[in-house]
Design goal:
Blueprint lengths: L1 H10 L12 E3 L5 E3 H11 L20 H11 L4 H17 L11 E3 L4 E3 L13 E3 H109 L3 H19 L14 H5 L2 H10 L18 E3 L5 E4 L18 E3 L8 E7 L6 E7 L16 E7 L2 E3 L4 E2 L7 E7 L4 E6 L4 E7 L6 E7 L9 E5 L1
Antiparallel strand pairs: 1-2, 3-4, 3-5, 6-7, 7-18, 8-17, 9-14, 9-18, 10-11, 10-17, 11-12, 12-13, 14-15, 15-16
Helix pairs in contact: 5-6
GO molecular function, one term: zinc ion binding
InterPro entries: B30.2/SPRY (IPR001870), B30.2/SPRY_sf (IPR043136), Butyrophylin_SPRY (IPR003879), ConA-like_dom_sf (IPR013320), PRY (IPR006574), SPRY_dom (IPR003877), TRIM/RBCC (IPR050143), Znf-RING_euk (IPR027370)
Pfam families: PRY (PF13765), SPRY (PF00622), zf-B_box (PF00643), zf-RING_UBOX (PF13445)
């Protein structure tokens, strides 16, 4: 038996340190050594050769041979780190459960003042003035408190998750906004490019037409000049021939030649026609400005642009952001801070902090609308009333009646176009019937922050889905 043990010990011993392997590694030559012993040997010899057969190792840092390690540890009677840790944890847990070594079986108490378990035999006199309860009750109460804290943490995490989800929705919506806005920008510039191209062709055609007219005029004048020159050349030749004749012959024929020559000599001298050149100034003078003036008829300015980021999910805005209607379906839009979620509202994109401003709104026959102004800080998520108290100055149409947020307003006839006027510095918001400029009412207040154009539109039962439109 001793011989067998010695043989096993020899197989499990390191050639370098002669001890039972610790973290053994096996080289490609099949010789094994303690990992630390092998590294020290290599450092001393300054090579990577096997200590036994001197063959060079193929690896600088050979991996642990775990099978050999388990055999060596078992033979040496070593405990693994995992079993040691497990034993230590059990020991700690046992110590944690025991408050007093002398009275481990006695039901413990819990001192709420010192926030710890105490032995009722050894420490009772030390806690007579403290609030002491059974450990079971203390654990029950404290666990209930911890559950409440857990619930608060879970609720807080849910809120963060909700915000994260909203950010994800906003991120996806931003991509859609990019594509949609990019498409509309290209479409608008294509219209402008088309207009400029057509205007360019029109002006080039006018230039070519004038050149054609001028060329024809000069051609006509040159033909007439050439005819006159030909006639004069014939007369010159006749006079020269007459001068070559003998005396008798000359005297008999000079009279007719002289008459024709004098008749042509009495003709007025030729004159250049004015305006024969192209009127370059007409074509180039203030060209950009005159094209821009013409372009103004093709483009339109709106004093108010609706902000799609504030629009309730039921509202649909036109491509140029000047019209809004209440749709039949709810749009999937992110619940960003600027957006109205409780009421079917939308705001203008730019606000006013001073000066005078005015615009008109075409409401047509729509039965349910509100137009006016709202504070930039107006609540867009919670309960809201259409009154200055809540930061809204407006004119409302509901069930055939008009209201200013505080009381009903009498109008002479049904309103189709409404004028809104703001004098911020004087604190006045006025509403007019744009068709005949009849004053409806004026609200006087003191403004302390930026005001934004405000619109509310709902689809009433049985009514058509129509737009309300902002205009100059």
């Amino acid at each position: 038996m001793a011989e067998k043990i010695a043989a096993v010990e020899s197989l499990l011993s390191c050639f370098v340190c002669s001890e039972t392997f610790r973290d053994p590694v096996t080289l490609s030559c099949s010789h094994s050594f303690c990992s630390s012993c092998l590294q020290k040997f290599w450092e001393q010899t300054k090579n990577k050769n096997c200590p036994i057969c001197k063959r060079r190792s193929s690896k600088d840092h050979p991996g642990i041979n775990f099978t050999l390690k388990e055999l060596a540890d078992s033979f040496a009677g070593r405990k693994t780190s995992s079993s040691t840790e497990e034993g230590e944890k059990k020991e700690v847990k046992k110590k944690e459960e025991v408050v007093c070594d002398k009275h481990s079986e006695v039901p413990y108490l819990f001192c709420e003042d010192e926030q710890r378990a105490v032995c009722p035999v050894c420490e009772f006199s030390l806690h007579q003035t403290h609030k002491v309860v059974p450990v079971e009750q203390a654990v029950r109460d404290l666990k209930e408190q911890l559950r409440s804290d857990l619930k608060s943490l879970q609720d807080k995490r849910d809120k963060y998750k909700q915000v994260e989800d909203t950010y994800n929705e906003m991120s996806q919506h931003v991509k859609k906004q990019l594509l949609s806005t990019e498409t509309q920008i290209r479409a608008e510039f294509n219209k402008l490019h088309q207009f400029l191209k057509e205007e360019e062709e029109s002006r080039l055609a006018a230039l070519r037409e004038e050149e054609e007219q001028k060329r024809k005029t000069m051609s006509r004048e040159m033909k007439r000049i050439q005819q006159q020159m030909s006639s004069l050349s014939d007369s010159i030749c006749a006079v020269e021939e007459e001068l070559q004749k003998q005396q008798v012959s000359f005297l008999s024929s000079y009279k007719d030649t002289q008459s024709r020559a004098r008749a042509q000599s009495s003709l007025s001298d030729p004159q250049l026609v004015s305006g024969a050149l192209i009127d370059v100034a007409k074509h180039l003078g203030n060209l950009s400005f005159r094209v821009w003036e013409k372009m103004k008829d093709k483009v339109h300015f709106s004093p108010v642009i609706l902000d799609p980021n504030t629009a309730n999910r039921w509202l649909y805005l036109s491509d140029d952001l000047t019209s809004v209607r209440c749709g039949d379906t709810w749009q999937k839009l992110p619940d960003n801070p600027e957006r109205y979620t409780k009421y079917i509202d939308v705001l203008g994109s730019e606000g006013f902090s001073s000066g005078k401003h005015s615009w008109e709104v075409e409401v047509g026959d729509h039965p349910d609308w509100t137009v006016g102004l709202a504070k930039e800080s107006v609540d867009r998520k919670g309960k809201l009333f259409l009154s200055p108290e809540y930061g809204i100055w407006c004119l409302t149409h509901r069930s055939g009646k008009y209201n200013n947020g505080d009381k009903n307003v009498t109008v002479q006839k049904s309103l189709q176009r409404i004028g809104v006027q703001l004098d911020y510095d004087r604190g006045e918001v006025s509403f007019y019937n744009s068709e005949d400029m009849t004053h409806i009412y004026t609200h006087i207040d003191t403004f302390t922050e930026k005001l934004l154009p405000y619109f509310n539109i709902r689809k009433s039962a049985g009514s058509k889905t129509t737009d309300i439109k902002v205009s100059v």
